[in-house]
Amino acid sequence: MALTQRIVSLLPSSTEIVCALGCSDRLVGRSHECDYPASVTDLPACSEAKFDPDGTSYEIDQRVKAVLQEAVSVYRVHATVLDELEPDLLVTQSQCEVCAVSLADVEAAACELVKSQPEILSLAPNALADIWRDIGAVAKALAVEEKGAALVAALQARLDAIAERARAIERRPRIACIEWFAPLMAAGNWVPELVEIAGGENLFGAAGEHSPWMAWEALEEAQPEVIALMPCGFDIERCRRELPALADHPVWGRLEAVRTGQVYLTDGNQFFNRPGPRLVESAEILAQIMHPESFASGHEGTGWIGLEP
Question: Please, are residues 121 and 141 in contact by the beta-carbon 8 Å criterion?
């Protein structure tokens, strides 16, 4: 196949995959959310949100639901920008209409392109195996299959090393991973797998399934020993600002993890929410917060911080 020279990635995770495959020089455009590695922020943004991303988690939830009543996705694609960039390949997703530009919107925009008629590669990550498959699909589209296989092998080897060390630890803390604050949502998809690898017992959310809504009553009944906050799209500071949505609820103070100081704020935006290479770092973060005596705190302060009781 012809070597793809001009790529537009409409997913932060796929942008990271392209760069991890050593093909960052082929990127000519990105989504408005692509920000890692930092060099990609110099590329033109080809999308934008249809809602105001500022505000509380509850306000954002209401805005997203309002947009989805009228449209397939909460993001829009800039077809004119794509036309000017003349890409050979557009990378998008069909996993979640809230996480990134929808496949339908990308296909509609591509139909308007008259110059390049790009190939569209749609990723659909629900579990770790899907992410390894997607890395292989991107590598194939870029004609770097060997690099793709090597990257997957290296990432899996790092996860295996974490799992092997965690298996030697008898204690497996019961952990609740919370992906949204108002309304309450647990982390699903690949996060339960990361918890298992890191040596914990996941209480909410099922591997390979979309993140489920939670009830405060269920959270109180479960009494997690550890709580990891990883709200979608929020960094640590934004997560901290949103804490009143949890702390003001009467159940919060009755939770074991809260009483014992085992609540952790993470950078969900950079780590847990992105189905790409840095999910290995996400597993490291979970291992560090659940088993600090056995795992070095290399990501403390950047990937996670502890919440004072």
Answer: yes
